[in-house]
Amino acid sequence: MRVGRLPLYTGPSDSIIIGLLVERGWGVGDGVKIGIERKSHVARPILSLLWLFFLIGHGLWACSKSEPYNPPDPFYYFASYKVGKNPTTIVTEDLNHDSFTDLVTTNIASNTLSILLGNGDGTFRDQIQLNVCQEPRSLVMSNFNQDRHADVALACSGGDEVMILLGHGDGKFEEGPRYPVHRAPIALAANDINGDHHADLVVALRNDKVKIFLGNGAGEFRHGVQYEHGDTPTSVALSDLNTDGKLDMVVTNGGPMSNAVSIWLGNGDGSFRDPTDYSTGRRPLGVSFADFNNDHHRDLLVINGEQDSFTTFLGNGNATFRSGKDDLKAILRNLKYSDDAKVLEQISENTKQVHARMAGITHKLVVMSGKGGVGKSMTTVNLALAFARQGAKVGLLDVDLNGPCVPRMLGLHGQSLTMRPEGAIPPVGPLGVKVASMDFFLDDASPVRWKGPMDVSPVWLGLMEMNVIREFLADVVWGELDYLLVDLPPGAAADKPPVIAGFIPDLAGAIVVTTPSEVASDVVQKSVTYARDIGIKVMGIVENMSEYRCPSCGEVNELFEGNTEAMCEMLDLPLLGRIPFDRTLARTFDKGEPLLDETYPTIQRYQEIAGRIRTLIDYKKVLAEQL
């Protein structure tokens, strides 16, 4: 088995997000395994299929024929760890020979390397930072001096050099030689390319060149051949693509004059033949290997940065490739965790887990709105608190994935889900309300970035968000609840209601929030019709911002001129209640210090609405029993 490189999204948040493979006969690295056996269903991270493909291509999923295996859930743990400023690359390795996987990151903005030693239980110790070269952009690990300890090669783009760090085998490193290059090294790969059993280096340079360094087995290198081809190499990888026993080189060229991946066949002596180019999407940034169609030939996955897409190339076994861009469905169906477990089967099992989780919740309600800006999330939060005041056990799931705000309103911003063997334990807010939200995974300035092929972006983005919602429903340990309120994104989003309805077949119904604005009323009608068309029972309408009471003089003014009562009559729905625009209440939620005084007039209105919803649910139950 071998240690794989773990590409992931990193950025200005100065932290890394870790997903760990569940171990049950599955290894990570040379005998290094994550020391947790899967006892029960557990939380997995929110991840993209691109990350999934890279993990497979870089050997993080590998087991020999003789090893026992059971198809695991692909990931076990999801956590964030502080590292240096602007991490750009992460590599896994056992640095101190304790059989636990450790992490190393390059931090380009702080000129440092971060080392996180693993505890063997899926967690890592606080980082150890090393000052290294100027602007370390990427790294590769191998045993350069044959002392059985992992060493590091750094691409130092700011200093135009390659820096070697020699490992001591205890998680510490000493500075080795530095080798000047011209200019701005971007990426590296390490392996024996000349057959002398010593690790060599291949370095991609910004000025359209690829430089070879041949190792002597003592941690030192001599200059080898330098090749010039393509426009701006962005990544490099090594593999035997034509099974001749000689390593071949694959380079992505991300400049506008190329937009291609180049295949260089190795001669086995540290040199390569003239390349063959294959067109990719715009600005290819990375390349990985895998067998996507199960024909036992190496295929290529190329990540295209400018289009937020990827390109697949299916190998013929002789280092030639054909385009696989139209084979996404086949790839998904044939991509295997093991000989008898496929991605789609995993999703099916995950959906069963959703139903098992939901079985412990008596009433499931969704809160939706016809358009944004009507105070839907504020209404959801206050209804959850209102049910809790009545003695109910309440959970609140915030599925506004791109603009989550529920945790901040309840004073839970900055907290996180706690990972346990049984699943993800949600934070508990005021009055015992349990909360799950994408906000727990984001820094203040970090948006959610969905990555996928631009030409099918509506389908791809929908799949990603559907997967996130399914993970929340399947992995969060709600326990026994009387009510689970699901706060949908604003607007008449066409994708979220059917997703929720599909995952929660016994949904009690939907509460629709609006304002008395005529524009809002028009959109609400469409939203109600759509919900009914997909089988969601709409329980009633809540009119928010119905009026404004001056805090100084007490004068009441209407904010809008619409007629919500007439709309409810036309839709044959009850008006569950009216909520005034309350500046005092809004300020407390903005500060994360929700007003909980049940004698406060606006809170009393929420209590009345909660009572009406409860009555409707009870009436529905009685009616069903009579039928």
Structure description:
- This protein is of the alpha+beta class.
- Among the domains are: 79-228, Methylamine Dehydrogenase, Chain H (7 Propeller); 363-625, Rossmann fold.
- The strands form nine sheets. Strands 25, 26, 29, 30, 31, 32, 33 and 34 form an eight-stranded mixed sheet that branches.
- Strand 12 and strand 13 (209-215) form a beta hairpin.
- The protein is elongated, with a radius of gyration of 28 Å.
- The model is unreliable at 1-13, 19-77, 335-343 and 456-460 (pLDDT under 50).
Rg computed from alpha carbons, rounded to a whole number of angstroms: 28 Å
Quantity of strands, as a count: 34
Q: What proportion of the residues form beta strands (DSSP E)?
A: 25-35%
CATH architecture level-2 label of the domain at 363-625: 3-Layer(aba) Sandwich
- pLDDT averaged over residues: 80
CATH topology of the domain at 363-625: Rossmann fold
Largest sheet data: 8 strands, mixed
**Separation of the first and last Cα atoms:** 62 Å
Return the CATH class of the domain at 363-625: Alpha Beta
Number of continuous helical runs: 11
**Segments where pLDDT lies below 50 for 5+ residues?**
1-13, 19-77, 335-343, 456-460
Structural class: alpha+beta
The CATH homology group name of the domain at 363-625: P-loop containing nucleotide triphosphate hydrolases
Specify the helix fraction band.
10-25%
Tell me which oligomeric state these chains represent.
Answer: single chain
- The general outline is elongated
